[in-house]
Amino acid sequence: MNEVDKYIAGFPGDIQERLCAIRKIILELAPQATERICMRMPTYDLHGKWLVHFAAFKNHIGFYPQPEGITAFKEKLSGYKTSKGAVQFPHNKPLPTDLIREIVKFRVETQPRPATR
User: What average pLDDT does range 13-28 have in this prediction?
Assistant: First the structure.
C-alpha cells in the first residue's frame, strides 16, 4: 500500500469513493504522472512539475489545479466555492467528474514539457 492508498483508506467509504474517482481520472489522463503525498495531500507531478493536488475535508473535497486551472474554467466552476488555485466540491452534491476530467485534461495539455536535446 503506497502513501496515497493509505491517505484514501483513512476516510469513510463514501469519501474514499470520491477520492478514488478523482485519482482514477488523474491517472487515466496523465499515466506518466508521479504520485506522492505533499502538504498532507495526494499530489501528482508531470514532467517534474506539480500538476494537481486533492484532499478530503469535513464538508468537501478540495481540488487544486493551480490558478490556470481555475481561471480557464471560471464559468463552469461558478456554482462552487473557489479561490485563486482551488475549488471545493461539497460532499452533499454529486462529484462533477466530467468537469474534473476537463480540468485535468487542460492541465496535462498546458503543462510545460522538458526541453529535448
Answer: 98
How far CA 62 is from CA of 10, 18, 54, 81, in Å, comes to 16, 11, 5, 10
Name residue, grid cell 477520492: 19
Q: At what angle do helices 13-29 and 97-110 cross, to 10 degrees?
A: 40
Give strand pairing partners of 53.
43, 64
For each of the domains in the chain, give its residue range(s) and CATH number, in order of start: 3-110 (3.90.1150.200)
pTM value is: 0.93
| Per-residue pLDDT at 43 | 97
DSSP letters, 57-113, are -SSEEEEE-HHHHHHTTTTTTTTSEE-SS-EEEETTS---HHHHHHHHHHHHHHSPP
| Degrees, nearest 5: CA angle 111-95-93 | 140
Model pLDDT, residue 111: 85
pLDDT band per the 50, 70, 90 thresholds, residue 11: very high
